[in-house]
Design brief:
The chain is mainly α. It has three domains: 39 residues, no CATH class; 264 residues, Hypothetical protein af1432; 78 residues, no CATH class. It has 19 helices and two strands. A hairpin with a 5-residue loop joins strand 1 and strand 2. It holds the Pfam family HDOD.
Length: 402
């Protein structure tokens, strides 16, 4: 379509790049007047957009409202940010359906059977510490993780030293460069070396990112019939993106640190998938059938939740204590002496769950911890701004990791 025919609300059907390959706008982005003005200034003449959306009849609108409302049964309906998230979820789901997406059936939203799998521990016979001990005794952690930890623990982080450590791991280097060149940072020129990335992003910041990325590589062999790992990591990355956007609104916080906390907020759940897959599946089904948050279902079915596991796991890995506590307290941030950072991940987790509803999300929005939103001093208008920024970033950031 010619640039002068574009209208606000149209959706890009493919990535839009400059002649030298630099990303301007990602596929799936809903154009605003600001985007169109930017394209005009950039000299773009033709743009590919999706076909016009179908009109929704009254029955479909009612079905959409019922579908989305099911995800918000656990939250306080009078809480202004949750009410705004509900409206956003409804708008996004309506757009998805009008664009050809079908609401998933109840069967499609269920976990597949894992009757053939044996749990290492049965309920009341194993503790989170037992599960972690069994895991860490059998598996070795990536060596590059400990070398990055050594750099992080140095009194003065050396940029040259960090670049050398990261550069020894080709896969890690490639992922970091993809991330640094993505809309996550929005640098105008391409960054083609780790040393350059360290200079622009900062040694401490990049080492935190490297720490999180190397942690992801540890998790392999999660039963595919138990969970769709692409969806799991998309939710995790989404939580990281929103945590970073929220952190940028605060003074004195390191956004990269909050991104990694969001990225790894469910890390304990991955160990549960590996060691107690049957019980984990039962918890997922219980959460769906009773419309309660998954961590509440874990406590009911298993006797503990994934943050109980992450508390032992991150200690065993000698993860930075401050980063560990953000992850361990993200469902109960106000119980932590300095609640702002875990509160950010708590809110980010809710936003990530809200946007996933229009993508086939399985679990209810857990609800923000009391006081978490207010702690940040952010107006509800920020939610739509953050989700717009997320839409511009998420696909490329996910590609950087996977």
């Amino acid at each position: 379509m010619r640039i002068n025919e574009l209208q606000s609300g149209m959706v890009l059907s493919c990535d839009l790049k400059t002649s030298d390959g630099r990303m301007l706008l990602p596929r799936g982005l809903e154009l605003t007047d600001r985007h169109i003005q930017m394209l005009v200034r950039a000299g773009i003449e033709d743009v590919e957009v999706d076909a016009p959306k179908a009109e929704l009849n009254a029955d479909m609108v009612r079905a959409l409202e019922e579908y989305v409302r099911d995800f918000y049964l656990y939250v306080n309906p009078d809480h202004a940010p949750m009410l705004e998230l509900f409206r956003i979820s409804l708008d996004r789901t309506a757009v998805a359906v009008a664009s050809g997406w079908n609401l998933p059936s109840e069967e499609e939203r269920r976990a597949q059977t894992v009757e053939h799998m044996d749990d290492i521990f049965l309920k009341d016979m194993g503790t989170p510490a037992d599960i972690v001990k069994h895991e860490t005794e059998l598996e070795s952690f990536p060596d590059v993780y400990f070398r990055i930890r050594e750099v992080l623990d140095s009194p003065n982080v050396s940029a040259d030293r960090l670049a050398k450590v990261v550069s020894t791991d080709v896969g890690l280097s490639a992922k970091l460069l993809k991330l640094v060149n993505s809309p996550f940072y929005g640098f105008t020129s391409s960054i083609d070396s780790i040393s350059r990335a360290v200079a622009l992003v900062g040694g401490k910041e990049l080492s935190t990112l490297a720490l999180g990325i190397s942690t992801i590589s540890y998790f392999k062999d999660i039963p595919p019939e138990l969970i769709n790992m692409e969806q799991f990591w998309r939710h995790s990355i989404s939580c990281g993106v929103f945590a970073r956007l929220l952190a940028e609104k605060q003074n004195g916080l390191q956004p990269e640190r909050l991104f990694i906390a969001g990225l790894l907020h469910d890390v304990g759940r991955l160990i549960m998938f590996k060691k107690i897959p049957y019980a984990s599946r039962e918890a997922m089904l219980f959460a769906r059938e009773n419309s309660i948050p998954l961590h509440e279902a874990e406590r009911e079915v298993i006797g503990f939740d994934h943050t109980d596991v992450s508390r032992h796991l991150l200690a065993e890995w000698k993860f930075p204590q401050g980063l560990s506590e953000i992850i361990n307290y993200h469902h109960d941030p106000m119980a932590y002496p300095n609640p702002l950072e875990p509160a950010i991940v708590n809110v980010a987790d809710n936003i990530a769950n809200a946007v996933s509803i229009a993508e086939g999300g399985m679990y209810v929005v857990p609800g923000m911890a009391e006081g978490a939103w207010e702690l940040m001093g952010t107006g509800v208008g920020f939610l739509r701004e953050a989700i717009s920024a997320y839409d511009e970033q998420i696909d490329q950031i996910q590609h950087a990791f996977f």
